[in-house]
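job 3f2a | input accepted
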Amino acid sequence: MRRNIALMIFATTTIASPAIAQQDDAAKKPAGKYAVEATKDISYYDGKDADPEKHKLDLFVPKGVKGFPVYFFIHGGAWSSGDRRMYGAVGQTFARNGIGAVVISYRLSPKVTHPAHIEDVARAFAWTHKNISRYGGRPDQIFVSGQSAGGHLAALLSTNENYLKPHGLTLKDIKASMPISGVYVFTAGRLARVLGKEPGAVESASPIKHVSTKVPPSLILYADKDFPGCAVMSKAYGSALKDKQVESSVVEIKDRNHISIMVKLMFSETDPTTVALMDFIAAHTKEKKAVE
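job 3f2a | predicted structure (292 res):
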């Protein structure tokens, strides 16, 4: 069964993004007290090979607030679908509650393979670290998160420092990591369209292979009715972190599946996933809980 875990997740997660896209952004009355100021389509990479659509991010900040923590969100979609524009509700939810949010896009497979996805994530993180203070955010309080494939990329950025080094950054620049329903280990011979065929790609792409004492505090979430293997991988990843004395918690969200755990996060500020993330941010910024 272990051999098929990542493959099953890859094959199924492509249905999640369209389901999320169909949600009504105004279906829930905002609970947070802050007005939100959004700045969209910011280029985080302008090199000669820049993708005009994917090398961009959307920024959501609580209007009139300074010194706020930042929720850095990476979308899912099996590394082959999805876009930041489908997850604006995430930015709205966090910014309404006094937490700035950066929602990014990245290049997708099969157009690119590993390590292009994580290189893009690192570029977007570097842009955020360098520029967020201009918008009122704290560059020393960036919380990296994502769901499904985005959970994998959040964990990989938080464990494999090689992707931060070209930007003059280290794992110390990540305040904490909060992957949701992620993939933490790959199997040789699987997902070639995502991992490519380069020797060592499976190991370099597997967050669990890079766990060290340098990994930032981590909150690992998954749904009780998640895809096969999510619970096993989440617990194994959490155990690997604890073995290295890294502060970590693994939390199962009840009455949720791989899709609803993301949808509820986007559209309900009192949902257990949303509350867990905001409480974790509050605890690590020594501030009052974001959700009353």
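job 3f2a | The chain has ten helices and eight strands.
job 3f2a | closed
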